[in-house]
Amino acid sequence: MHGLTRRSLFAGAAAAAGLATIPLGGRSWAQTGRLTVTSYGGTWEKAQREIYAPVFTRATGWAVDVLLGGPPQWLAQIEANRSNPPIHVSLMPVELALAGGKKGLFEKISADKVPNLKDVPKVFVDLVKGWGVCTNYGAAVLGYHRERIKQPPKTYREFVDRTARGEWRAALPGIGWAFTPTILLWPLATVYGGGVKNVTPGFEAVKRMRPNAVFWNSVTEFPQLLETGEADIGIWYDGRIWDAYDAGAKWLAPINPEEGAPMIPASVVKVVNTPDIGWKYVDAMLDPDAQLKFALLINYAVTNSKVVYPPELRERFTPWERTQLPPFEEIGEVIPEWVDRWNREIRA
Amino acid sequence: MAQAARSRTGSIAWGPALPALLFLVALFVAPLIDNGLRSIAPPAGAPWYAYYARLVSDPFYLSSLVETVGLSVLVTALCLVAGYPVAYYLTRYAGRWRSLIVFLLISPLLTSIIMRTFGWRAIFARRGLLNTFLLDAGLVDRPIDLLGSPLSAVVGLVHVLIPFMVLSIAAVLEKLDPRIEEAAHVLGASRTQAFVRVILPLSLDGVASGTILVFMLAMGSFVTLLFLGGGSLKTFPLLIYQQFNTTRDFGMAAAMSNVLMTIAVALMFVQLRLIRRTGVS
Predict the structure, then answer these.
(1) Count of C-beta atoms within a 10 Å radius of residue B271
(2) Euclidean distance between CA atoms B203 and B200, whole angstroms
(3) Other CB atoms closer than 10 Å to residue B133's CB: what's the count?
(4) Any chain A CB within 8 A of the CB of B22?
(5) Interface contact flag, B227 A217, Cβ < 8 Å
(6) Is A343 part of the contact surface with chain B (CB cutoff 8 Å)?
(7) Which residues from A are below 8 Å from B126, CB to CB?
(8) Which residues contact A256 (CB under 8 A, 6 or more apart)?
(9) Residue A95: strand, helix, or coil
């Protein structure tokens, strides 16, 4: 019987390390009939598991693994293993769908791969330049505590002025939230005559509000800030406001400023070098019945034009024609510069 | 024969260490190398040291680094000042309450850091417990802004990290023979003299362990600073998160994490040297 020697241990370690480099997952894993899709936590996860995955599984017989997390993490995972990605189909905000598409991480969508695409207005494909499709959208509106604020602001300008005067405390997205450039800096810059090329008016507006503002860096913080009296009004997503309302926060209400809140679509992408059956999952996410269930669950408008909403649900959606569509691609290019400026000037 | 014996010794030495060694190589050394390579691969046209040059030449990043180290030093000092008496009481006077005190010390570690942080938010909020108390007691006439301030971040960090200090010091104090202290008294030392000249030097190993643990954890702390500090403190971990989450500049994030790690390790050695020099060992 041979003893365990240093040499044999090193040989074993080398063999183990070698084995570790052999690609697993991806295609070989795909043959076992499991598709990995991503999801945010909470109701999004519920939607993936209970609404979309069953439609896909019924159609294909494949099981679905739901990977929880956030888009920057998913994009990094795909980028790090482009030839054999650990994710097959992923939710993506428009900015990152465009960024990943440019790097060749996502496949182009078409109606022959995704039959339900024919019922989706073209704008929702064009927004992500065909590297996927937007499945739903909401708006980053003003949410306020209606027991404390009897006369809410009607415009962004009024919101900024009255916050600066200290009429209330505002909960604004901080730079820890990845989409603050799109939902705070860009709309404020636009309202005050600037835009992507000139964001200074947006920064000036935030600075004016700063003494009477608190900043949320996780999307779930907002209702807590209002409930604990830390803030009375702020910027949050309309769907989440209605979610919180349904969960008991009857004091919470949304306002779409007259200038129009930024419309925030959510897209789904199919990752390169993954099984084509992933398109079936994208198709399931555009299925009209599934989309209606999603809208009822999560309070966001969906993009399949065949979906007919119940009247009470339709009333909740911010009409898209009264929103502003942010120039996602242009904003994506200047985000590093804006973040750097925020760190130096706002520090929140 | 001798070779066989050495071979057996080798197997004894390496066998149990192998899983840990593989673990370290795969999850520590390899990522560090990858991180190092990323940090010296800036966009085309820039020199290899571009990220580092920016970090050491830009006053914003330098002040952020000072803030990171300063916060860690402050939190470590507070944990030491507050934790040492607890550790001393625990080993000398707790008696039958000892298990309960240890449990109370450890219990915060058994809950999620998110839950603890949100608990502090409920206390520090404008309509939270603390402000309500201050208002009801007539000590203030309007709520104080505590949340999103450096104060709330420091309190949150001390709460999270103090058990590491107490347990490190208590482990050493426990091994000290109480008769040494008694001998000091017999020889005429006052309680303070016995503590300063006998107990404290003998417990410096525990102080060193606790200080290093708390300092390292404070240097890398993120959740508490994000949710309690609210951006009022711009420490390196928060900036690294931004680079990953918002700007997606992984090279810059890698350079920042390498600088942070280098400073942390260097300061750890300085701490060790200082404490060992002061101690009796």
Answers:
(1) 16
(2) 5
(3) 12
(4) yes
(5) yes
(6) yes
(7) 169, 228-230
(8) A139, A141, A142, A238, A318, A322, A323
(9) helix
B58 contacts in A (CB within 8 Å)? none
Q: Classify the C-alpha dihedral A197-A202-A207-A210 as positive or negative.
A: negative
Burial of B137 (0-12, 13-18, 19+ CB in 10 A): exposed
Token output for A205? 């507006």
Our CA-based measurement puts residue A221 at a distance from the nearest CA of chain B, in whole angstroms, of 9
- Distance set, CA A182 to CA A139, A324, A339, B56 (Å): 11, 11, 12, 30
Query: Of how many residues is chain B composed?
Result: 281
Residues 263-302 of A with CB under 8 A from B: none
Q: 3-state class of A306 per DSSP?
A: coil
Reported as a single tens digit per residue, the pLDDT across A64-110 is 999 998 898 899 899 989 999 999 999 999 999 999 999 999 999 99
Look-up: residue for tokens 């260490």? B17
Give the CA radius of gyration of chain B. 24
Size of chain A in residues: 348
Pairwise CB contact (< 8 Å): A215 & B227: no
Task: Express each pLDDT in A183-192 by its tens digit.
Answer: 999 999 999 9
End-to-end Cα spacing for chain A: 66
Asked whether the beta carbons of A122 and A130 are under 8 A apart, the reply is: no
The amino acid that residue A259 corresponds to is: E
Whether complex ipTM tops 0.90 = no
SS3 B43: coil
Contact B147 A230 (CB under 8 A): yes
B245 in contact with chain A, both atoms CB, cutoff 8 A: yes
Look-up of token digits 């994710």: A87
User: Which run of H or of E encompasses A35?
Assistant: strand A34-39
Residues with Cβ < 8 Å from A215, sequence gap 6 or more? A171, A172, A173, A174, A175, A176, A348, B148, B230, B231
Residue type present at position B102? V
Cβ-proximal residues to B67 (8 Å cutoff; 6+ apart), any chain: B233, B234, B235
Angle between helices B17-24 and A6-21 (to 10 degrees): 40
- pLDDT by residue (tens digit) across B37-67? 999 999 888 999 999 999 999 999 999 999 9
